[in-house]
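Weekly structure sync, notes
Attendees: PL (lead), two postdocs, one rotation student
Agenda item 3: pending single-chain targets
PL asked that the sequence for the first pending target be pasted directly into the notes so everyone works from the same version. It is reproduced below exactly as submitted, 197 residues in total.
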Amino acid sequence: MLLTVAIIGPAHALKGEVRLEIRTDDPEGRLTPGTALPTEPSEVGPLTVSRLRFDGQRWFAAFEQVRDRTSAEALRGVRLLVDTDEDEGDEDEESWYAYELVGLQALKVPDGAEDGDQMVLGEVIDLEPGVAQDRLVVRTPEGARVAVPFVEELVPEIDLGAGTVTIDPPGGLFPGLGQAEQTEETGSRGAQREDAE
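Predicted structure, written out during the meeting:
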């Protein structure tokens, strides 16, 4: 199975180096110099890593087939792939790849106990790597981009079979959905509701 380990970003400097958007937990292992990687689109590759470095915030790579900035700029948006065994996915059932999530319909956690029609928040368009945690990027029906921290509290359920991801957004995260949870009043709503019951 071919999985994306990185997406080539803009050219950097003059000798063919490019910035990478990493999509793997092990960039040094997957992108070791000397490794030939298939690409998407396939006609661009394979590309052989000649140098990999991390500047403390971003990853950069150079390839044997790319010698100048013009050639490097032409690679922007190309996906670097790795051929993995299907068994590797069994190690962590809670791990998700961007390609599995992109295109899923994002639904809001139902407000009531009964299973009614769930509110559609939008469509997942990307999985952005982050320092503390990754972010699920959702495009709303109005076209806004919303980055949801990809943690179990906010993204409690992913159903690949149904093509959905269920999100429990805090107030204010999605446009028009509740108020930002910054005041004590918002936090006390649950207690008031319990008293009313």
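Discussion points:
- Residues 85 and 91 are 11 Å apart (CA to CA).
- The first strand starts at residue 2 and ends at 12.
Action: rotation student to compare against the earlier draft before next sync.
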